[in-house]
Design goal:
Distance between the termini: 82 Å
Number of helices: 6
Oligomer: single chain
Structural class: alpha+beta
Order of helices and strands: HHHHEEHEEEH
Shape: flat
Largest sheet: 5 strands, antiparallel
Helix content: 40-55%
Strand content: 5-15%
Strand order of the largest sheet: 4-3-2-1-5
């Protein structure tokens, strides 16, 4: 039998640290994922309180984890169907007008609504494209998101032929940031998906999405056969 390699105390500490870090990289993301999912399930299960007591699962001797998730999905879907029609939109508008009269509530509600519209909205209210811009000074680059294509007085007075409205988020909180109007020739459009770019911003550059491989269409080789008339 070959003798066991002699490991110094410093090397043993280094190996121990290496194995601990490797173990943490396995269990930490898994543990956080389980905790977050469990929190969300318990949170959505609170929607069962909307049901009359006689119709709740415990009244029938049932305890089904996650049933509130299904109920929450149905409630959100029905709310969306209601808000999408004429009568529902009028009701939502009246409710928002009422909330805007309450000092503290209107600040919280408007901030959350604007963030939700930017992330989940459609059309001009979403992050449409990802750009690479030099910010806060020349030589330093960061990511920015196109927020709209409307051209009004501020855009016209920049003197640019084509203006891009950009939102530059901060790390690790992308809900705050800076609004910039830039010349289209001074920014670089990226092929990054918005979700991937947001992950990169939130992680401070730790999470870098893989670069997309552009498929090249190869021309078919010319046939060696000669055609005879």
């Amino acid at each position: 039998m070959s003798p066991l390699p002699v490991v110094s105390g410093e090397e043993a500490v280094g190996l121990l640290k290496r194995y601990l870090i490797a173990g943490l990289l396995v269990w930490l993301p898994l543990g956080v994922t389980i905790v977050v999912i469990n929190f969300l399930v318990e949170l959505f299960d609170q929607s069962l309180l909307l049901l009359p007591r006689a119709y709740r699962p415990e009244a029938f001797g049932l305890d089904i984890p996650g049933l509130g998730v299904v109920l929450s999905f149905v409630v959100i879907l029905l709310t969306g169907l209601l808000a999408a029609n004429f009568l529902g939109s009028k009701l939502v508008g009246w409710s928002e007008k009422l909330l805007s009269q309450i000092p503290l509530v209107r600040t919280i509600y408007n901030a959350v609504k604007q963030i939700a519209e930017a992330v989940f909205g459609a059309g001009d209210q979403t992050f449409q494209k990802v750009y690479l811009i030099e910010y806060p000074r020349k030589g330093l680059w960061t990511l920015a998101f196109q927020t709209g294509a409307h051209r009004a007085e501020p855009q016209r007075k920049t003197g640019f032929d084509e203006v891009v409205n950009l939102f530059v988020p901060t790390t690790p909180n992308p809900t705050s940031g800076f609004f910039i109007m830039a010349n289209r020739d001074d920014v670089i459009e990226l092929d990054l998906e918005v979700d991937d770019a947001l992950k990169m911003v939130i992680s401070g550059g730790v999470v870098v999405p893989p670069e997309k491989q552009k498929t090249q269409v190869l021309a078919e080789p010319a046939s060696d056969k000669k055609e005879f008339s």
